[in-house]
Amino acid sequence: MDYLNAGLDLVQSRLAWVATDPFDWKLYLQLTSWGVCLFESYLLLRQFPLYSKTEPPPVLKDHFKEEVFKKSQAYGKDKAKFSLLAGFYKQIVDSIFIHFGMVAWSWKAGGWIVGKFGYGPEYEITQSIAFAFTLFFLSSLPSLPLSIYQTFVLEEKHGFNKMTPQLFVTDLLKSWAVGFVIGAPFLAGFLAIFKWAGSRFVPWLMAFLLIFQMSMVVLYPTVIQPLFNKLSPLPEGDLRSRIEALASKLKFPLKHLYEIDGSKRSSHSNAYFFGLPWSKHIVIFDTLIKQSKSEEVEAVLAHELGHWYYMHPTKLLSVSQLHIFSILALFPAFLRAPPLLRAFDFPPQVAAKPPTIVAFLLYQMLLTPLEAVVGILMNAVSRKFEYEADRFACELQNKLGDSKMADMGDRLGRALTALHVENLSTVWVDWLYSAYHHSHPTLTERLRALEGYKAAAAAEKTAVEKKEL
Ligand SMILES: [Zn+2]
């Protein structure tokens, strides 16, 4: 712990100027956030011409009927146009908000709200919660028309929207309510730790965040998701027995197997697992079950169990802890920095003793361009994991010594292609666009890799059989 604190102190002394020297942080934020926005637009412009191609890549030629390919290109083009315009719109709104000091204004509004309830500025945590929700509402309202357009015009036009206006409104209200019920105590705990631990908050806060993440793993599926979707046990039958058999052969601690009514909102489909190490739940979208044969859904689950087998979620959690640690380690320099608050239009009396939540939020905003880079790295890790899980499915025949699984790679390929076709997912993808935005390799890349894994698994099988002879 002493070693850790010494290291943190060194970082702190290097950044000591932040607390004393005036710097135009607002200009820095405007320039860097516009930089990210322009880069994202550039990526869309790289991707855009690919939507005019008239033929799918050779590997996919047999799977895409001309009609479906045309539809997928049209859908992609519409989505890209929307993303380009929405990106600029959001950036302009954010830019105006920053220019006119919206963060400072929200802090004042938070103080006014809690004042109405008889709490003065000495109640920093209470005012912080009021501030955070004011700021959240102000910044999310302008993008509401965008999500309405996306759901009821764009997705509707291409036949994906299953949402009714009523469901849209209740979803929104529910998500705000859930945000408040979870967010307020979370924020209070977060700020209380700062108050209590003083300048040595890093390890304590990390422990707090980890406990919070773990409790969300339990709470999300059991309490939150049922507010939005219906999870029902997967009925007895071929699919259920296949998945149960697979889970038990791999010693996957399967507790519950659910079907989720994903089709209530959209016909995009998927499957996933979650839970604590000793008790896992698998959830399959009803749309996936409808679109694919049970042996293909089994292959999708084999891929998912590959993620579990190689402990991908745990590895991703460790990477995210490292990420959180670096963010927190640099934060003390920004925690008591009056020039930072002055740069964002806070009055001198507030800036003199910066509220923790304000300092943290401004600090987070300054990290935007760095977060974009972190996102690219996280995508690279995630893609590597996707390939590993695909290979796992192909190797199951040897791992479990089950020749009925010899065609697992083919089945997975068919399921992935069917999902892709049903979702009208983009077929031609620019490599830079994909590196920035996608956590999964493209379908073409995955099918090509699957061919290699299948061949390797078959060769291994022959080698083993020869030895046995
Ligand atoms: Zn995966």
UniProtKB/TrEMBL annotation:
It catalyses: Hydrolyzes the peptide bond -P2-(S-farnesyl or geranylgeranyl)C-P1'-P2'-P3'-COOH where P1' and P2' are amino acids with aliphatic side chains and P3' is any C-terminal residue. It is a multi-pass membrane protein. It comes from the Eukaryota. Its main location: endoplasmic reticulum. The chain crosses the membrane at residues 87-107, 127-154, 175-198, 204-223. Keywords: Endoplasmic reticulum, Hydrolase, Membrane, Metal-binding, Metalloprotease, Protease, Transmembrane, Transmembrane helix, Zinc. The keyword Transmembrane helix applies. GO terms for biological process: CAAX-box protein processing. Binds 1 zinc ion per subunit. Its cofactor is Zn(2+). It is an enzyme of class 3 (hydrolase). Residues 234-452 form the Peptidase M48 domain. This is CAAX prenyl protease. It comes from Dichomitus squalens.
